[in-house]
Write a structure and sequence with these properties.
The chain is an alpha/beta fold. The protein has 20 helices and 14 strands. The longest helix has 36 residues.
Length: 478
């Protein structure tokens, strides 16, 4: 064989061998990657950090100056604690961005109120469902009122791009080919709901939890009909993360986690069941018309007794609707509706004087809050202090005693919230030191104050943003 041909054969064989080696390396890399995914739980523990993809919205995660909150955040934090690692939230705007980020290994879990859909299930592995929601067509009260999917044809419908809501619309398009919508990336669902309420856009799609929260701030929002059956929410993971998925399933299936989920549902959504359109509309109007006259007293009292002045204001609104001469049939009077005895104990000479009444009410609340003690975590401690303000210290203690007797946590507001109404039932109150009480009233009392406080907090926060961005003067009531 000629030397030139021998060289050609050798080069060809070398290339074949090199190709085989590269193929083996690549296949080995894929195998290693899949092995790493299967052992994702070991990687998380070695890293000491659970990376969770979520969204910065009222239903998932929010950050205040003093604490972090949100249903998804607290649930993920509990799972991280269970694993003995730190929680690291990773933020994206929508599910469309979350899926590739998760599959690229930039996070371990998606915890963002994601619904289990056919499309997502073909790419992701889901943990056990923990909540049901509906995806609602949302409009403005008094505006166009569609009753079925066919009524949306030809109507301007805005939806946050890349969300489950848009995916469900795409499924509906198979039945309604003329259905169309405007997908937008520059506005979150929360912002679209605000635009609907203000009449900027006519319709959008949002899940029922988000709507329930936003109706407090935008009372003119109204739901028309769901675009699908009830959707199940669950955490999502890489389908190759078998070890992590098993850990998530085992954790969700424990009685402790089930109790935690019920507690979180009650905390974040329980008080939203009482939506009174006229009451919320009236409150927004009185923020403009009445609050300016008394705000300085609320602020002074808040500073003096180290209580958020907006909580004091919300408490006063629930008591008197900011009527300084309010009086009930039981004889309680003034902005803070003080009894004669409480006023005397606090040194109040004139219950109808706004300054005296507000200062005394804030002082009394601060006293109850301190008396409950640090063994009760926040915000449960605040809710219990509010309940005691309404029903009395003794009856609050009876409710906590009853919670303990029924195997519930007496330091958790959801547990005490469930036992307070039992104080009106003879089978229970006859066994308690302080006897009968209309225990359902403090539950409603606390729920309403939470609504009023959250509305006022958002209003004042929006003012700060407005002043920083535009330098404009605030509206009077803010």
């Amino acid at each position: 064989m000629p030397l030139k041909m021998i060289r050609a054969v050798c080069v060809a064989r070398a290339r074949i061998c090199m190709g085989a080696i590269i193929s083996l390396i690549l296949l080995g890399g894929v195998a290693c990657e899949q092995l790493a995914m299967r052992n994702a739980l070991d990687v998380i523990k070695a890293r000491g950090e659970l990376r969770v993809l979520t969204r910065n919205d009222p239903t998932s995660y929010s950050e205040a100056p003093r604490n972090r909150a949100g249903f998804e955040y607290e649930l993920a934090q509990a799972f991280a604690d269970h694993l003995g690692v730190k929680l690291k939230p990773v933020f994206t705007h929508n599910v469309r961005d979350m899926v590739p980020a998760l599959l690229r290994g930039e996070a371990d879990i998606i915890a963002a109120g994601v619904a289990i859909t056919k499309t997502l299930s073909s790419h992701l592995a889901f943990g056990p469902p923990y909540m049901e929601v509906t995806m609602e067509v949302v409009g403005r009260r008094g505006g166009y009122s569609p009753r079925a999917m066919g009524d949306l044809i030809g109507q301007p419908l805005w939806v946050h791009a890349g969300t489950v809501e848009e995916e469900l619309l795409k499924e509906q398009k198979a039945r309604y080919p003329q259905l169309s919508w405007r997908p937008v990336s520059e506005y979150e669902t929360e912002e679209l709901l605000g635009m609907v309420c203000k009449g900027t856009i006519p319709l959008t799609i949002a899940n029922s939890n988000m709507v329930a929260i936003q109706q407090r701030y935008y009372p003119h929002l109204v739901t028309h009909f769901p675009i699908s059956e009830r959707e199940l929410l669950a955490w999502a993971m890489n389908p190759h993360s078998s070890q992590l998925r098993a850990a998530v399933e085992n954790w969700f299936n424990t009685p402790e986690t089930a109790a935690l989920i019920e507690q979180l549902k009650q905390h974040y959504y329980g008080h939203l069941e009482r939506f009174d359109f006229m009451d919320v509309v009236t409150y927004h109007r009185r923020l403009r018309e009445r609050l300016p006259e008394y705000r300085k007293y609320f602020e002074v009292a808040g500073r003096r007794y180290e209580v958020d002045w907006r909580l004091v204001a919300a408490l006063a609104y629930q008591e008197s609707h900011w009527h300084p001469e309010a009086e009930s049939f039981t004889g309680v009077r003034g902005l803070m509706m003080l009894t004669r005895k409480t006023a005397a104990d606090l040194g109040v000479m004139r219950r109808l004087d706004p300054d005296e009444s507000i200062s005394a009410g804030a002082r009394y609340f601060a006293h109850l809050h301190k008396r409950i003690g640090v063994s009760v975590p926040e915000p449960d401690r605040t809710y219990m202090a509010l309940a005691a303000y309404n029903v009395g210290w003794g009856h609050l203690e009876d409710a906590r005693m009853l919670a303990r007797r029924l195997g519930k946590n007496p330091n958790a507001w959801p547990a005490v919230r469930s036992t307070l109404p039992l104080l009106g039932k003879r089978a229970f109150y006859k066994t308690l030191p302080h006897g009968f009480a209309r225990g359902a009233e403090p539950v409603r009392f606390v729920d309403c104050i939470r609504t009023y406080h959250s509305i006022l907090v958002q209003a004042t926060n929006e003012l700060l943003v407005q002043r920083e961005q535009t330098g404009t003067r605030p509206r009077a009531y803010l």
